[in-house]
Amino acid sequence: MKYNKDNYQKLVDEFTPKNKMLRNCIMAFIIGGAICVVGEIINDSFVAWLGISDDEASPMTSVVLVGLSALLTGLGWYDKLGKIGGAGTVVPITGFANSVVSPALEHKREGFILGTAANIFKLAGPVLVFGYLASFIAGLLSMAFK
Amino acid sequence: MKKIGKTFKIGGDVVIRDVYTIAGPKEAEGPLKDKFDMVIDDDLWGEDSWEKCELKLQKTAAENLKNRNNLLNSNIDLLISGDLLNQITSSTYAARDLELPYIGVYGACSTMTLTMGLGAMIIDGGFAENVICVTSSHFCSAERQFRLPLEMGGQRHASAQWTVTGSAAVWLSNSGQGPKIKHVTFGKIVDLGVKDANNMGAAMAPAAYSSLNQHLKDTAIDYDLIVTGDLGTVGKAIVNKMFNEDNNSIESKYDDCGTIIYDIEKQDVHAGGSGCGCSATVFGSFLYKKLLNNEIKNLLFTATGALHSTTASLQGESIPGIAHCLGIEM
């Protein structure tokens, strides 16, 4: 065989289909944007109809979006949306909820504690770790430059 | 010596008496839909987990094979089986209920030809008269072990393959009528450094080329049909290119089970099918029948496997490929 570890990747690249980047970007923009529009509508509705202040409406909107995403994940619809929307469904807070609920569902057959609870942050764990780390560094910086 | 080069020559009769196939719902929407012996309606098949469904696939395939041929456990010398899950879960738990002397093997997606090759040698060695070889894979249990949770929203890579839900049980015997296993070539591991788990076809193609080349060189047989296990569109194209570069084209008589089992355009399976069940169900439902109906006189059946572990992959290791060849003649 004339191929080795150095020249094989070139052959692989020749036959490996490329992902449709432009289409994926456009769909991510549309679906991700649509999720944000839904968030805006919920937010504005809280303010306009329920008389909730802007500051309080924002976290309440996040709660509703997370709840909706969890519901759609449970119904098996969010992954179908993710297939079309790609990063557009991963980046918003609904994507975070999906990454928590999907392993929780998948591991429920191994029991509530060692299955669901032990695996619930399997995907979201790194997000939490780096979120905490970033906030810790931001805290240090704000202390230093106060 | 019953050996030519690296190929074992089966001197006596090892007859593939019957194959029983079960396929999942997506496979039943593909081009082979009318050819499977049994089709299941959903991914759980009345069980409460995908793993239990997969072992039921194996158990049912073996039991229905026995029933169809009036085989009793007292007539069967050995059960050889394997699957994709850790500790070959499906095979072991199916074997628990089948109550036969059991050899469990791990060959990833190459399991069908690995078990049949071993069975053929054991029969030819005079140690057994009847051997049953079984393998299976299940889309959901495999995704879960090797990739991400099913309900996780995201996109699959264009070169990714779809794990076949299905199982096949094969009855090998030293007597009777049917296609015979004549040559067995167990492949060596070939790893050309592919690390992308979304491109298994490319990772396994060099192993397929290596084993096919070895087998064809050793036996010098002009096969009517050469079929690999689950290289998909990417791996199949690479194998063709490698043989073409040797001025030894096999393109006109070469196909891959991963591209046979699904309608690649319509079924949204990207580069095609994969998994132990891919080569197993395509062999049982399609290739074996081609031999029986005398559409082809001989077949070089080569299941291909990616022998990586998720732990090794995370530690930066590449994907070791393997391919085992069976030369089958009618």
CATH class of the largest domain in chain B: Alpha Beta
Query: Taking Cα atoms only, what radius of gyration of chain B do you get, to the nearest Å?
Result: 18 Å
CATH architecture of the largest domain in chain B: 3-Layer(aba) Sandwich
**Silhouette of chain B:** globular
Q: Can you give the mean pLDDT of chain B? A: 96
Q: Could you say which structural class the secondary elements and strand pairing of chain B correspond to? A: alpha/beta
- Taking the alpha carbons of the first and last residues of chain B, their distance comes to 24 Å
N→C terminal distance of chain A: 65 Å
Strand content of chain A: under 5%
The description of the largest β-sheet of chain A is: none
Structural class of chain A: mainly alpha
Counting copies of identical and different chains, the oligomeric state is heterodimer
Low-confidence stretches of chain A: none
In the predicted model, the low-confidence regions of chain B spanning at least 5 consecutive residues are none
Largest sheet descriptor of chain B: 7 strands, mixed
Mean pLDDT of chain A: 93
Task: Summarize the entry for a quick read.
By secondary structure, chain A is mainly alpha-helical. Chain A contains eight helices and no strands.
Q: What tags apply to this protein structure?
A:
heterodimer; A: 146 residues; mainly alpha; 8 helices; B: 330 residues; alpha/beta; Peroxisomal Thiolase, Chain A, domain 1; 7-stranded mixed beta sheet; 6-stranded mixed beta sheet; 9 helices; 15 strands; 23% strand
